[in-house]
Design goal:
The chain is an alpha/beta fold. The protein has 2 domains: 2-190, no CATH class; 196-355, Rossmann fold (3-Layer(aba) Sandwich). It is built from 12 helices and 15 strands. The protein has helices at residues 2-9, 51-64, 87-98, 143-148, 153-163, 165-168, 182-190, 196-212, 231-244, 266-282, 329-334, 339-355; strands at 26-27, 38-40, 43-45, 48-50, 69-71, 104-111, 120-127, 132-139, 217-220, 223-225, 228-230, 248-251, 290-298, 304-312, 318-325. Strands 1, 2, 3, 4, 5, 6, 7 and 8 form an 8-stranded mixed sheet that branches. Strands 9, 10, 11, 12, 13, 14 and 15 form a 7-stranded mixed sheet that branches. Helix 2 crosses helix 5 (153-163) and helix 9 packs parallel to helix 12 (339-355). The protein starts with a helix and ends with a helix. Residues 1-24 have low confidence and may be disordered.
């Protein structure tokens, strides 16, 4: 389950929140729409269109068993002041006028703001003529919504697809034997995720580091925490590695000022950062030491939404590129709210990899 969650959850930037005026769940009678082709439109995240989140919806639909899924780039934008209760009908009229090529069109709207948190998810499915096929409005106060307690876009996308499982005849999109997703493969390629051969090479490099043991030194660079660089995080991480007895470690004072792609796609953020780090390391003088660089991604003022831990071989090759957010047990066990907490997450992940736990 953890591997499956990583593949899909990493597609989205953490959203601290979303407010719906409704406090109850309403669902139309399930239609007979099994096997229909579907166009997924960009998700509305607190009123802003997210094609990336729409792509994740498509991935989840394919993993659930939908065989004909298209993802649209053009977003539906309701007129200002549109009553949410009339939006499915308005969306249907818009779809009818657009000349939809598939049988059905799907729109998901996540209501709220970063300050208040996810408070409502609206799911609307219409046919190519604009007729409402299925609609659901879930918000705080409904048993389904409160039980799921969605906090991030990924949570909301999973919730929406689970809402559609009965009418579309889908299976659990996060099950272990889920249908391979063509959209997911394309998304990973665009995000810079390495292919299978590189993943295997990374495993071999990590195994080699384990064999080197204390003869290998890891240079720990200051971690990026939002817009700041934390030397104290480097010192703490180096101390933890030394204390483990697995390898030697030293803390660097000067940061490796890498950059990341601005994207709601977390794989794009992760791998663009890792490749930026790699380029900077390779531009330096030849080294016999490994290098560790971490990126702590804030979520609001008093919490962190993700921890990226990147370990490089002396020649700059990837050894470990690890992503953690609230979908992962290690991250949840610490629930990082400070830089020190993020150090705990990075330490947990790194030492587990070095021990081959």
């Amino acid at each position: 389950m953890a591997r499956i969650t990583i593949l899909v959850a990493a597609a989205l930037l953490t959203l601290a929140g979303c407010t719906s005026p409704s406090a109850k769940s309403t669902h139309a009678a399930p239609p007979q729409a099994k096997g229909a082709s579907i166009t997924v439109f960009p998700v509305a995240l607190a009123g802003r269109a997210s094609p990336e989140a729409g792509n994740v919806l498509g991935i989840l639909l394919e993993r659930g068993g939908a065989t004909a899924v298209e993802v649209a780039e053009q977003a539906y934008a309701p007129e200002a002041g549109t009553d949410p209760t009339t939006e499915p009908a308005a969306f249907g009229r818009w779809v009818a006028a657009s000349g939809l090529a598939t049988d059905l069109a799907l729109r998901v709207a996540i209501d709220g703001s970063p300050q208040t948190g996810v408070a409502g998810i609206r799911t609307m499915l219409v046919d190519k003529r604009g007729a409402i096929v299925f609609e659901a409005s879930d918000a705080g106060g409904s048993s389904r919504f409160d039980a799921a307690a969605p906090k991030e876009p990924m949570d909301c996308c999973v919730f929406a697809v689970n809402t559609l499982r009965e009418p579309l005849g889908l299976l659990d999109p996060l099950r272990g034997d889920a249908t391979p997703s063509k959209l997911q493969a394309r998304m990973q390629q665009r995000s810079g995720v390495p292919d299978g051969a590189e993943v295997e090479a990374m495993s071999r490099r990590l195994a080699a580091l384990r064999t080197e043991g204390k003869s290998a030194t890891i240079r720990v660079y200051p971690a990026r925490a939002g817009e700041q660089w934390s030397t104290s995080a480097a010192v703490a991480l180096a101390a933890r590695i030394e204390q483990s007895g697995l390898n030697k470690a030293v803390a660097e004072i000067e940061p490796l000022v890498f950059v990341t792609q601005r994207s709601p796609n977390q794989q794009a953020v992760l791998w663009s950062g890792a490749r930026s780090m790699q380029g900077l390391l390779r531009a330096r003088d030849a080294s016999t030491d490994y290098a560790l660089v971490c990126d702590f991604l804030p979520r609001g003022e008093h919490a962190f939404g993700a921890v990226h831990t990147c370990l490089f071989a002396p020649d700059g090759s990837f050894v470990l590129v690890d992503y953690q957010n609230s979908h992962h047990d290690d991250f949840k066990s610490i629930d990082p709210k400070t830089v020190d907490d993020c150090v705990e997450v990075a330490t947990l992940r790194l030492l587990a990899a070095l021990r081959n736990d």
